[in-house]
Amino acid sequence: MSIDCKDKVVLITGAAKGIGAAACRALADAGAKVAVSDIDAAAGRELCEALRSSGADAEFFALDVCDEQQWQSCLEMVVASYGRIDGVVNNAGIAVICGPEDESLDGWRRTQRINSDAVFLGSRAAIQAMKSQGGSIVNVSSIEGIVGDPMLPAYNASKGAVRALTKSLALYCADRQYGIRVNSLHPGYVETPLVSGALAQLPDDDAAAFASRVVASIPLGRMAQPEEIASGIDLLPTLKSLTGIESQPKKALDGISLQPLIMEENPLWKDRYIYNYWRGKLSLRNQNYRLDHQGQLFDMVNDPNQTTDIGETKPEVLADLSKAKEKWSQEVLVELPANDNRPFYLGHPSLHTTQLPARDASASGDIKRSNRFPNCTYFTNWIDLEDTISWEAEVAQDGDFEITVYYSCAEDAIGSLFEVSFGNASIQGEIREAHNPSEYGASEDRVVRQESYVKDFKSLKVGKLKLKKGKGTLQIKGIKKNGRALMDFRLMLLKRV
Predict the structure, then answer these.
(1) Strand (E) positions, 63-167?
(2) Which end of the chain is more exposed for a tag (fewer CB within 10 A), N or C?
(3) Nearest residue to 254 (alpha-carbon basis) of 4, 28, 26
(4) Do residues 310 and 352 both lie within one domain?
(5) Coil, strand, or helix at residue 47?
(6) Residue 372 burial (CB < 10 Å; 0-12/13-18/19+)?
(7) Distance CA 81, CA 103 (A)
(8) Which domain does 149 fall in, by range?
(9) Is residue 178 in a domain?
(10) C-alpha distances in Å from residue 240, one per residue of 140, 156, 191, 227, 259
């Protein structure tokens, strides 16, 4: 079995460190587009930069997993950035080493809120986002969700809840034929900031005793490394391969069978290539090396910043990657159109909603992007009613669509009117509430980023628009403007009703 995650879009929570960071790297290595989410924005963005420098497609999304509204906004932004979402890994969690007599009710509730409630919120949001197309949810529980520890009552209870919740969600999705797999991982003790942080809260003697007891209970005599747990993404394909189960799932499985590494003494393990093509520039990488679009070769393990071209000292590696690059060009690039002007497809039978972000729109007149790099950008400076925001679109079949616009505006914009139109159909919307938050992220950055800073946008349900099958221009135009500007625009959502 040789199944990878090429072009899959996966969101990982608690992704900045430990198991989450290892999962991000493993998924990126398998070809996935990684949505890195964490409450620690600085560490999350640092991981994204490292992933992107290695040729991966990664983007950071700030997320407090205990905030219901942030979950909704986060998934909407992921879909807006990548066009879809295929998997969610609920990994964020905390651990406090404390016996039941010393545990406070507030401490107990905090552990349940982060470790258990957040998994419910994330799974619920993921199901709603993926049920029309299928996908995968992986909930990171723990061996402590199965066995007990005298000094981890709150953690035991929270991870046991995750285990039972996962079983319920799996049955629910199967019963409704959503095509969504829901599984839980139950790692033992792993050398992560979570464990070291929990130990740091104890007196030195107590921390040493706890660690010694834990290690003594592990047959290998050591804690696991995050990378070893991250390989759990390959668990299901491996089990299928080991048991000889032949099945034809409706959705392709993520991951690769690790059977050769388990069963064979000297396995023949084929190195995987990950290709990156953007604006005529093609690069590729394997586990250790990256060949960029200019033919430069970099050792990503010993030179993660890719500062030194080692092509002359590694001619055999350069030759292998160059050959793979040329082969891919001949097999793939020749089939790509020189000018891809395909319209956005609206109302596909398998999709309940379609998201049209500012990133993919065209704007006329004085309307500007928040940044010259399109991802995560929004439109601003909408000061002229003659200016428009538009997408070339094709409606798959006649139908009614509920229109929602994500906007921000100043107080003086209240009462402004705009029109959404396609062909002969149109509907007007009115801005009834001001929403003018500041961009966030700059205070967490060590250096000013090149990409756009982001801010929260408010949803405005415009109403139902009856669309006819066919091609045309989907457009937003101002009708009445109060104040200096109509609005800042981030996203339009079309929901088939």
Answers:
(1) 87-90, 135-140
(2) C
(3) 4
(4) no
(5) helix
(6) exposed
(7) 42
(8) 9-263
(9) yes
(10) 21, 30, 29, 22, 10
Q: Token pair 């394997």 is at which residue?
A: 286
CATH number of the domain at 319, please: 3.30.1120.10
Examine the domain organization and report whether 55 and 179 are in the same domain: yes
- The C-alpha atoms of residue 180 and residue 67 are separated, in whole angstroms, by 23
Looking up residue 78, the CATH number of its domain turns out to be: 3.40.50.720
- Reported as a pLDDT band with limits 50, 70 and 90, residue 472 is very high
Catalytic residue among 82, 155, 289, 407: 155
What is the token pair recorded at 454? Answer: 């982001």
User: Are residue 306 and residue 324 in the same domain, yes or no?
Assistant: yes
3-state secondary structure of 21: helix
- Other CB atoms within 10 A of residue 233 CB: 24
Distance CA 47, CA 97 (A): 28
166 lies in a domain?
A: yes
Q: What stretches of 101-228 adopt beta strand conformation (E)?
A: 135-140, 180-185
Has residue 362 got a pLDDT over 50?
yes
Residue with tokens 């097999």: 331
Instruction: State in Å, rounded, how far the first CA of the chain is from the last one.
Output: 40
State pTM to two decimals: 0.48
For residue 200, pLDDT over 90 is answered with: no
Active site residue 189: no
Is there a single domain that holds both residue 69 and residue 115? yes
Q: Residue 291's beta-bridge partner residues?
A: 284, 297
Counting every residue written for the chain, the total comes to: 497
Residue 104 token pair = 């406070």
pLDDT number for residue 341: 74
Angle at 427 between CA 421 and CA 429, to 5 degrees: 115
256 and 283 together in one domain: no
